[in-house]
Write a structure and sequence with these properties.
It is a single chain. By secondary structure, the protein is of the alpha/beta class. It has a single domain, classed as Spore Coat Polysaccharide Biosynthesis Protein SpsA, Chain A (Alpha-Beta Complex). 27% of the residues lie in helices and 26% in strands. Strands 1, 2, 3, 4, 6, 7, 8, 9, 10, 11 and 12 form an eleven-stranded mixed β-sheet that branches. It has a two-stranded antiparallel sheet with strand order 5-13. Strand 2, helix 2 and strand 3 form a beta-alpha-beta unit. The longest helix has 16 residues. The relative contact order is 0.20.
Amino acid sequence: MKPTLLILAAGMGSRYGGLKQMDELGPSGESIIDYSIYDAINAGFGKVVFVIRESFADAFRQRFEPRLKNRIDIEYVFQELHKLPKGFSVPEGREKPWGTGHAMLMAKDAIKEPFAIINADDFYGQTAYLQAADFIASSKADNEYAMVGYALKNTLSEHGTVSRGVCEADAFNNLTKVAERTKIGREGNKIFFFEEDSKTELTGNEPVSMNFWIFKPSFFNHLEVGFKDFLEAKGQELKSEFYFNAMADRLIKEGKASTKIINTDAKWFGITYREDRPLVQESLNALIKAGVYPGSLWK
């Protein structure tokens, strides 16, 4: 059974100023999503599931279905604020989505096979998809997951702070902890995690989660339980978010699952701010010039 690629694409791109998931960055009008799917197909993935807002559906279908026809199966699932477990409701005034864990949960009925999950606006590199496919092929345990790890210093933006899941591992390269750091950036030659009244220096070599993880479908059951616990504790807050990697962290601490860190030398880049756009285009053009990608992906 071929693995599935789950793409988180429901965000509005508030810091970017538009629907960055669809921004044409490649020389033939490709978005970062196009390159992600191209790499996944070449690594042996058989289906792509988009998590989007229902209002994006027509735009996504018009864009991707002609390109991907006869190349890979496509499904769409919708993340909306009101899609909550029975007994819970959206607090008055809440506009912010519920986070990556909620987005991922929307795909529960669409995925019955091992899968990788990625962000729509991050470029992860061909090698990472091949490594993910190799892990899926060799991993038999239902509670054994993996995360593709990138060095923190290689994942920062020149145009503002970023949010990263900073990871720690044991001697066997199994993940022991994920700390969600919502404000990391440079000051001069140093890297800091900023909190309200303080800052903590980081080395830059810490492996970070760029939301490229590999799971087995049983993870959805844990996620359902975790989301209900989150809603009980923080569901009335207007900006609280439920992260899927925080759920993985909880399972590790409870001894219910393990997560292998797959260290990769694949090049990562992404778009957080509109000012990142020229750098992404430059990086894509360099890869095309080096022969990694054709000038037009879907000819």
